[in-house]
Design goal:
It contains 13 helices and 20 strands. With 515 residues, it is α/β, with parallel strands linked by helices. Strands 7, 8, 9, 12, 13, 14, 15, 16, 17, 18, 19 and 20 form a twelve-stranded mixed sheet that branches. A six-stranded parallel sheet has the order 3-2-1-4-5-6. A two-stranded antiparallel sheet has the order 10-11. A hairpin with an 8-residue loop joins strand 12 and strand 13.
């Protein structure tokens, strides 16, 4: 085998065998295999490794390699070089079995692992399966002896996709099932948002820049907004999953609360997995969940109706494939939360997420307080037309996606004899600064599993703390049907009723710049 690019000491990992359960699904095709190939082509995988697809479709090694090769050519960020791709595919294998219907399937797979001389002993299992199979699979892996204790010479690690649980009770039950068979250090609960460079840069910006960290507190920050807006609907046959999950489970409980943790957490004592996750858990424990009596003013749910996104007319959620025609599943959620600790007491955090929105944008906005005395006239301009307006607050904006970067909006004096100020932006953009594509989140996360670095993965107490925050919403909306489900036209910024979360707090939603 021809040598690949040089590997740094940081990126070198031990030989491994990765088994992907649910290997013929969309996640494997679009994300996992292209990410693995990107790591391979960059020289970040060891010379000896095996990737085994475990699924029930009628493939063999050759046909599975053909399918994976086509997926990499379609979804890899850069066109793969033919020889490099061929070398990678030689390490890809297929094991046809149905764990759900065959109780001996994992025992037979263990026997095959023992026979295959080219499959390294370090084992990495990726559970890209239906959520109700997470617990049985972990138990089955342990019973078959496929996972070893942490003290064993060869390591065993298990990656579990989201959603981790359907509510607080099921998350606790799943944690118990996993921790009865595995050590916490062996469980990697994945949230791909944490693998994004721009998300990790929140910590770098806050704790590597002495001029900014003193600004993040209740004395200077008026409020914080976190938006995760999507233009997509129920493509790729996601209707059945999403109709059962909704915006709270799909986005709010995991992605948005993780962003809130990074925006609000205290500096860790050191940059280790446990130190960082300890601080995140403290933030979640400081959040007061909305009480039943205030849910109608602190939280708003919506569901998209037919409309126009970009240049295309799109159906409403209830007209989408595999969605119930009378569905009450929210595709939009807006929520006001309070972080009751010394740093953030009195600062509202506004979270919103939705499908079929006006633009694809994920942003965190820190809005600062206005000066106590307005000494200058403020001018706002649209094109060449300018007019006096009220003073605008400064805003620090983290753009997670797209056009990844950071903006600082502040007032500057306009040229001329009059003493007038106008809002201007100071911008940092990844594309303009480094002029190369950012690595995919799954590249970073898969590499971290191989290194045994759990910093960007959620811990059991962290998962349960997040569910504790959103459980009152699920109870109110699903068990007691409290509060209306507001329709909003596809291609908008959600239901106008979501403005009510700012009631008594003097604010409005930040609209991300058009992309």
């Amino acid at each position: 085998m021809a040598p690949g690019p040089a590997r740094s000491a940081e990126s070198r990992v031990a030989p491994f065998t990765l088994t992907i359960f649910g290997a013929t699904g969309d996640l494997t095709r679009r994300k996992l295999m292209p990410a693995l190939y990107a790591l391979f082509s960059a020289g970040r995988l060891p010379d000896a490794f095996a990737v085994v697809g475990f699924a029930r479709r009628d493939y063999d090694d050759a046909s599975f390699r053909d399918w994976i090769g086509a997926a990499i050519r379609e979804f890899a960020p850069d066109p793969p070089e033919a020889e490099s791709l061929a070398r990678f595919l030689r390490s890809v294998h297929y094991h046809r079995a149905d764990f759900e219907s065959d109780p001996e399937a994992l025992e037979a797979y263990r026997a095959r692992c023992a026979r295959e001389a080219g499959w390294p002993a370090n084992r990495f299992f990726y559970l890209a399966v239906k959520p109700d199979m997470f617990g049985p699979l972990v138990e089955g892996l342990a019973a078959a002896g496929l996972v070893r204790p942490p003290s064993a010479e060869a390591w065993s690690r298990v990656v579990i996709e989201k959603p981790f649980g359907h509510d607080l009770a099921s998350a606790r039950a799943l944690n118990r099932r996993c921790l009865d068979r595995l050590d916490e250090s062996q469980i990697y609960r994945i949230d791909h948002y944490l693998g994004k460079e721009t998300v990790q840069n929140i910590l770098s910006f806050r704790f590597a820049n002495a001029i900014f960290e003193p600004l993040f507190n209740s004395r200077l920050v008026h409020h914080v907004q976190i938006t995760a807006a999507e233009t997509v609907g129920m493509e790729n046959a996601r209707g059945a999953y999403y109709d059962a999950a909704g915006a709270v489970r799909d986005m709010l409980q995991n992605h948005l609360l993780q962003l809130l943790c990074l925006a609000a957490m205290e500096p860790p004592a050191q940059m280790t997995a446990d130190a960082i996750r300890n601080e995140k858990v403290k933030v979640l424990q400081s959040i007061v969940p909305p009480s039943p009596g205030c849910i109608e003013t602190a939280a708003v749910r919506g569901q998209y109706a037919a409309g126009r996104v970009g240049d295309a007319d799109v159906p409403g959620f209830r007209e989408e494939a595999r969605v119930r025609p009378d569905s009450k599943t929210p595709t939009y959620v807006a929520l006001r939360l309070a972080v009751e600790n010394w740093r953030w007491a009195g600062v509202p955090f506004y979270l919103r997420t939705g499908k079929r929105m006006a633009a694809r944008a994920t942003e965190i906005v820190f809005q600062f307080r206005t000066p106590p005395l307005q000494l200058f006239e403020t001018v706002a301009c649209v094109g060449d037309v300018c007019d006096l307006t009220r003073a605008k607050p400064n805003r620090l904006i983290f753009r997670i996606q797209p056009r990844e970067g950071i903006s600082l909006r502040f007032s500057a004096k306009r040229p001329g004899a009059a003493i007038q100020v106008e809002d201007v932006d100071m911008n940092f953009g990844y594309a303009e600064t480094w002029r190369r594509a950012l690595p995919e989140a799954y590249e970073r996360l898969l590499l971290d599993v191989l290194r045994g670095d759990s910093t960007l993965f959620t811990r059991s107490d962290e998962v349960e703390a997040a569910w504790r925050i959103v459980q009152p919403l699920l109870d109110a909306w699903e068990r007691h049907d409290i509060g209306a489900l507001y329709p909003y036209p596809a291609g908008s910024w959600g239901p106008t009723q979501a403005d009510c979360v700012f009631e008594h707090y003097d604010g409005d939603w930040h609209v991300p710049a058009a992309r």
